[in-house]
Amino acid sequence: MDYDLALTIGLIIGVFSVPAMVSALSDRRAPRIAAIVMVVAGGLVAYAMTQKPGGYRVDEIPDVIVKVIARLLG
Questions:
Q1: Cβ-Cβ contacts under 8 Å for 18 (sequence gap 6 or more)
Q2: For 2-59, what is each residue's pLDDT tens digit?
Q3: Half-sphere exposure of 57 (CA within 13 A, CB side)
Q4: Where are the domains of the chain?
Q5: Which segments of 1-74 does DSSP mark as H helices, in order?
Q6: DSSP H or E segment with residue 60
Q7: Cα 64 to Cα 68: distance, rounded to the nearest angstrom
Q8: What is the pTM for the complete model shown?
Q9: Are 42 and 7 in contact, with CB atoms under 8 Å apart?
Q10: Which of 15, 28, 51, 66 is surrounded by the fewest CB atoms within 10 Å?
Q11: Among 4, 1, 18, which residue's Cα sits nearest to residue 69?
């Protein structure tokens, strides 16, 4: 898997797991699935950060996301 793709997928599923976690906590349920998804997202982001030579800088992450989406659509 491409490091940019792993970073993008990890960030997207991480963002989507936050509302699920908040919903479960507000309903006084254990956020099991949301927590598992958050761990998977963190694993993907950590994989991308550690395996790419030089890592990622914070200011280049939006460009990486746009490049991955453009590559998938085009």
A1: 34, 38
A2: 999 999 999 999 999 999 999 999 999 999 999 999 999 999 999 999 999 999 999 9
A3: 3
A4: 3-73
A5: 3-26, 32-51, 61-73
A6: none
A7: 6
A8: 0.90
A9: no
A10: 28
A11: 4
